[in-house]
Amino acid sequence: MSKPIVAIVGRPNVGKSTLFNVLAGERISIVQDTPGVTRDRIYADCTWLDMSYTLIDTGGIEPDSKDIILSQMREQAEIAIATADVIIFITDVRQGLVDADSKVADMLRKSGKPVVLVVNKVDNFDKFMPDVYEFYNLGIGDPIPVSAASRLGIGDMLDEVSKYFPNSSKEEEEDERPRIAIVGKPNVGKSSIVNRLVGENRVIVSDVAGTTRDAIDTTVRYNKKEYVFIDTAGLRRKNKIKEEIERYSIIRAVTAVERADVVLVVIDASEGVTEQDAKIAGIAHERGKGVLIVVNKWDLVEKNDKTMKEHTNKIREVLSFMPYAEILFISAETGQRTGKLYEYIDMIMENQTLRVQTGVLNEIMTEAVAMQQPPSDKGKRLKLYYITEVSVKPPTFVIFVNDKELMHFSYTRYIENKIREAFGFRGTSLKFIIRERK
Ligand code: GDP
Ligand code: GDP
């Protein structure tokens, strides 16, 4: 089920990062072995009461001159409008209402997206409340006073934000069609791949529902099946400033991946795999999505019989956290192997939803335990009692043991490998939950 996306928009210095950190807390959104991603605070997985959401900070670079500030804010607002379910528009009671605020408020109002207007730095409600009323002039609803620094008013703000969360993603869950996100750095060829895949197969959807999201997705019929390509409108967008492009590609990846079943992580063959690619791939990995690594522009590479192997080795090294993902070498330009993309998408979808019978799983586990003794500590040996698959997308297994502390990561990995030897599960991560049975 995809989580709602909340974006923070506001001028420099109004307190965006402070608010972001308060909401994200110490929570680390990334699994430990995904490189690079933890340094960034562009997005975070957050919760409020029993609700989960993904928070994104559209800010980032601090412009110095006034007209740059406005154009940057327009960019931020556009990104938020394109990707978020709810926008937090944050202003600063101490600087008061400024012209740039009004212009951005106009943009947000016209978008029709839910906006929560927040007035920050109200450290003392008695003293500053009179100044808060001025923000009604923005015409985007009631200003909510908060102090991000002293964590005042945050609960009231989140109550307001969560009012706009979709009740449930029932519609999406009932929708059996594969949902595919295509992610990667700028210029790796994402739009070209979309054009290849969509090509003549685009379905003209007449019954466009009320959501803005439908407008940015493209439905395709191929081999009598329908596929939904997510946020294809976002792919056609072109930005100018380099830092923004990088930030935007991360935000786009997070929001598209959130809604996807299968993620195509596109790498530029002529450039080779980079840390930035690992960052983007990590987003799909940590969310447990189906993944295909697509090496594009294969036509530009001078090849001999070892070239593909060399590229594969390098990718396995840099993307070491997803050994389960297949690698496909294509050229969107010439069409080489692009026909295989749908085959892989089908295969990954199947594996994401594959259910293995409990009896079979327990046979595999018993055999694995017999072949390699479980670890022990201080005279106590790990015992594995029972394994069962409890959910799919990604396939999730619960293993009951005598003592959780004894179940080392490496032994879980060993069991995972045995399950993969039997069933493959190519293209999807597997999740293991270890429980103690008393
Ligand atoms: P950003 O540029 O919008 O991300 O703003 P920052 O989060 O970096 O905050 C800008 C400045 O405002 C920093 O010096 C913060 O310490 C300060 N600040 C943030 N929130 C509050 C607040 O609630 N009250 C006060 N007095 N200062 C705050
Ligand atoms: P995006 O920013 O990831 O959407 O990348 P684009 O699809 O806009 O492609 C960026 C550039 O790479 C364009 O000039 C494309 O024509 C070119 N390109 C895309 N795929 C290929 C390919 O397979 N081979 C070659 N030679 N060029 C490609």
Q: Nutshell version of this structure?
A:
This protein is an alpha/beta fold and 438 residues long. 37% of the residues lie in helices and 21% in strands. The relative contact order is 0.10.
Please tell me about this protein's structure.
Keywords: GTP-binding, Hydrolase, Nucleotide-binding, Repeat, Ribosome biogenesis. This protein is an alpha/beta fold. Helices cover 37% and strands 21% of the residues. The chain is built from 15 helices and 17 strands. It has a six-stranded mixed sheet, sandwiched between helices. It has a six-stranded mixed sheet with strand order 8-9-7-10-11-12, with helices on both faces. It has a three-stranded mixed sheet with strand order 15-16-17. The protein binds guanosine-5'-diphosphate (2 copies). The site of one guanosine-5'-diphosphate has 16 residues, from helix 7. Residues 184, 186-192, 235, 296-297, 299-300, 331-333 line the site of one guanosine-5'-diphosphate (GDP).
Features of this protein?
alpha/beta, 6-stranded mixed β-sheet, 15 helices, 17 strands, globular
Q: Structural class, judged by helices and strands?
A: alpha/beta
| CA(first)-CA(last) distance | 32 Å
What ligand species are in this complex? guanosine-5'-diphosphate
Strand order of the largest sheet: 2-3-1-4-5-6
- The gyration radius over C-alpha positions equals 24 Å
Shape: globular
Q: Biggest sheet, open or closed, and with what strands and sense? A: 6 strands, mixed
Tally of separate helices: 15
The amount of beta strand, in percent, is: 15-25%
Low-confidence stretches: 27-39, 206-212
Give the overall pLDDT as a whole number.
87
Find the count of extended strands (DSSP E, 2+ residues).
17
Overall helicity? 25-40%
Protein name: GTPase Der
Family: Belongs to the TRAFAC class TrmE-Era-EngA-EngB-Septin-like GTPase superfamily. EngA (Der) GTPase family.
Binding site for GTP 2: 184-191, 231-235, 296-299
GO molecular function, one term: GTP binding
